[in-house]
Amino acid sequence: MPFVRLTIADPDIAVDVRSALARDLSALLESGLGKEYEHTVVHIDLVPADRWYVAGVHPGEGTGAHLEVSITAGTNTPEEKAAFISDAHELLGRRLGVLPAAVYVALYELDGRSYGYNGITQAARKNLDPAGSD
Question: Using an 8 Å Cβ cutoff, are 73 and 109 in contact?
Fold first, then answer.
């Protein structure tokens, strides 16, 4: 049950591109990290390009992006996480076009005792359904 925050340095990204990014990121989390598509929340934050800096300057070309994903700690292997980061970067390039020299993808692993949705922690949810996915 990940929460995704994607910041894009282009306030004019079309709605269809934003929708495609939300669908694609949700699908990638399902296929790559085993997360439930129907519980994935994607928040896309569009910021003015003049607020984006790489190496202290505005990128000459390319759309700045930063992807943050909150997941439950201990639910994925290092290999799965590395593959997700690589695949997410490729997805951003495919949907946004040219990217600047530095585009970060961060997986935040949160303790299941202090992370949850709909009023239930992930630890409590796991106790209710030990075979369930994250």
Answer: yes
Q: Where are the domains of the chain?
A: 3-128
Please check the confidence at residue 78 and state whether its pLDDT lies above 80.
Answer: yes
Q: May I ask the CATH class of domain 3-128? A: alpha beta
pLDDT tens track for 15-51: 999 999 999 999 999 999 999 999 999 999 999 999 9
* pTM tops 0.70, yes or no: yes
